[in-house]
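Re: [help] complex structure
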Amino acid sequence: MEANTIIGTVNKKGQKIVEPEYLFFEAPRQQYFMTGSEVVREAIRRASVDISVAYPITPQSEAAAMVGDLYVEGYVGDYFRGESEFAVMSQCAGASFGGARVFTTTSGPGTLRAYENFPMWAGSRLPILINVMVRGINSPLNIQPDTLELGMILDTGMLIWHAETAQELLDYLLKGYIVAEEPDVHLPIAIVIDGFFVSHTKDMVMIPSADLALPPYNPYRSPVPCMDMEVPPVRMMRDPFVMKSNYISYATHASWQQEIRAAIERSRKHTIRLIGGLIEEENGDAEILIVSSGTAVAQGREAIRLLAEEGIRVGIVKIKTLRPFPHEEIRQATKNAKLIFVPEFNVVGWMAREIKAVIPDNHRVIDGPHVAGGMTLPPEVIVEEIKKVLAGKKEVVRG
Amino acid sequence: MAKYRVLPGPEAFLPPSAACAGVVLPDPGQGHIHGEIVHEDIAMEEAAKQLLTAKVPTIFPGPLVLWNWNEKAAKKATAIKALYDELKSHNAGALLIPMPDYRPKYPKINPEVEINPNHPNLTIWHNKIDACMFVGVHCHQANLSLKIIRGGTNCYTIAMCAQAGHEDAMLSFRDATPDKIWKLVEVVRKAKASGVYASRGGVAVSKA
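Output below.
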């Protein structure tokens, strides 16, 4: 099926299939006041999703249930509950192998129970979109927001975009499909939000008409054979070479893994085109920078406003995509910074590690402030951390 | 650090993916040569030169054009056969070796009958292939092959891709239609007619 032959046609729900760029950038939008979960429903309503598989776990359960409503209304082709998160992700894989556009959601311990499937999705080049609403994962049990799980999925081979707001959540869900399904990319994509902070709070969101929808997925543009038992060539997925013990089998497997990482790199140009760059900067020339992703950025914005009132100029670098990681963009954005603060909602500081790994003179990175276990990160805590460090470095940094 | 160039190997025990070394794919209307973006017409002329001056120029058609699964595949196959005929009439050493599927062939592949993405180097070594063109191979499988070839052989690789192209080839086109393959046939015919490239005893030599 050629994509350009269906533009302008109407799907079975009566939605007009439009060019993605039209839906993203030109179609009139109307303002709504919605929770993040409701925003997920509205994005999927317009995403021409074939199959969604669900399993309840807080805080994503509400969004998953709303997608079920979409199935009843006829906007989603099929929808069912899996037996566990591992089953859900395996069923998503089967659906994607068969050529469906797939959507699912997960959170916290569910993400970890499903974990084995994520590198399998990537290795199989399955462009499944998963909305990860992060929450605490470690004992004692905790359902509150915490980004530790996000740090754990960084190297699965998936694309990972971290939305700060409900508006970004809507746009990333729709744009994520288009980037993930590019034949030179064709990888699973995790659209991440901080659980509760985004999923359960209301925000103003601009949404295009529900009469419009993305073009459906075309599995015949896949870089690997679509599992189609009716159309040849079939039988191409048998006999994994890893079962053989010889040099060339190992070389093929190594090259295969490299190819997954190469596909992540190829996503850069599509991503930059659709979401306007991998980072955003505010006061980028300041000698003190806050660099982070997700709602830590929102708290950072308020902190720089408070610091400005005291005559301390601070800038902010928001990281939108964790995979691909914007290493060159961060190098450039931080080249004049003398102090780089990395506030995070987790106990380990994985974001600070990521930044330290890609910039020169990484002693400039201040690993924190951190909160964890669902604690909020008040802007005053960021302000306090910056002022504390500045008190010891007056000779280095201009206020 | 010097910019990475996608050159004939043997490059390394495990060469990097060109995309991870900073090579980007061409936009529509463009191709790349050794990782440098060029106008598609320039890439066509360079591809013709490589195929006409090689000792054993070889086309590797993959499942997407070997199997008559849609009308476009059949048209592409016809154009590919015409390209092969042009090369064969110029150089008796030219080969057309299919890649019918992607299953590893055990206990060993027959390199005179087919090529396989999991061990393409065996086919290239056996036939002493010094320039080849992939066409109709799923992109992921093509990239595996192209990288293994670059790692272990000195073969010049060309990828005629129906999608976004291949960084791991030394030269690559994108958005290949039957018309685009026919255009390459015409460029090869014109290059042959120019007399710049002459063949002798099955071995092509350049007068340039």
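The longest helix of chain A spans residues 247-275.
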